[in-house]
Amino acid sequence: MTIERIRKPEWLKIRLGGDERFRLTKQIVESHGLHTICTSGKCPNQGDCWSRGTATFMIGGNICTRSCRFCNTLTGRPAPLDQAEPVRVAESIRLMALQYVVVTSVDRDDLPDLGAQHWVDTICQIKTVNPQTRIEVLIPDFQGRTDLINNIIDAKPDVIGHNIETIRRLTPQIRSAARYDTSLTVLAHLAGNGVHTKTGIMVGLGETSDEVAALMDDARKAGVSMLTIGQYLQPTRKHIAVVEYITPQQFENYRTLALSKGFLNVESAPLVRSSYHAEAVSFKTG
After folding, report:
1. Which candidate, 31, 35, 81, 75, places its Cα nearest to that of 55?
2. In Å, what is the CA distance from 145 to each residue of 67, 118, 173, 186?
3. Which domain holds residue 182?
4. What's the domain count of the chain?
5. Neighbours of 31 (CB within 10 A)
6. Hey, which of 39, 87, 90, 192 would disulfide with 129, CB 3.0 to 4.6 Å?
7. Cβ-contact 158, 286 below 8 angstroms
């Protein structure tokens, strides 16, 4: 059976990078042997962000132990952690002169601490080398282990995000080992410890507007204050297909609804991703 692919609308056209700032960012990332979710995740905003001298660093290697159906990151057996990675990340941030940085990671379910200490080492190294740089981290669920999450909290990044990704009904189809309620537990634990807490979701996977509204209620009940909503884009034909391209007007409707529910900051547009323009959103909250 052949599945008909939906033609991408005009509003999803992407600006490619190529200016001097883009080339410098690319050179710094590659020369330090670093990974970014910009490249691994086929982010549509790579050209824009790199041209502005910003990038989302991905630590823990470039191979994930999970195989979510929406994600372009490689899945398999990861290599041992690179103990020099935190230093190289911090040095790259210094060379880019970043005032705000976002760090994420692959899932490392193969490690006894699921990679938590590597996270702490990276945050602490960034703070040491770049004391004026604000740090946002986008963490995995750490299998819901609050003892490990507390290590991240104690390292004191400015914002801690964890993406719930999609509505409850679609979670088993979209995510692999992750669970909707586990993500809510993680978010509630973060917010309960006084952390500026952020989550992000994709739409266009077959969810209804009522289900998106219910997710917003769940996130607010967990104490989440920042929300991003963006269009799911199929990375390759092997990934789950797009069901619908959500219109810019519907994204604006979602933004208005989320603000009415009490979120302090909401970014909702077709090309929005969890780290897109994060510095502008989070400065408002800080």
Report:
1. 35
2. 20, 16, 23, 8
3. 10-285
4. 1
5. 11
6. 90
7. yes
Helix (H, G, I), strand (E, B) or coil at 37: helix
User: In whole angstroms, what is the distance from residue 132 CA to residue 128 CA?
Assistant: 9
CA–CA separation, 286 vs 44, rounded Å? 27
Residue 5: inside a domain:
no
Has residue 108 been placed in a domain? yes
For residue 213, give both structure tokens.
Answer: 């509204």
Query: Which tens digits make up the pLDDT trace of 6-61?
Result: 778 887 876 555 556 566 666 666 666 655 544 544 455 555 555 555 668 899 99
CATH of the domain at 174: 3.20.20.70
Q: Is residue 188 part of a domain?
A: yes
DSSP code at position 206:
S
Does some domain include residue 3? no
Calculate Rg over the CA atoms of the chain: 18
- Given CA atoms 45, 51, 53, 59 in this order, what sign does their dihedral have? positive
Asked if residues 261 and 220 have their Cβ atoms less than 8 Å apart, the reply is: yes
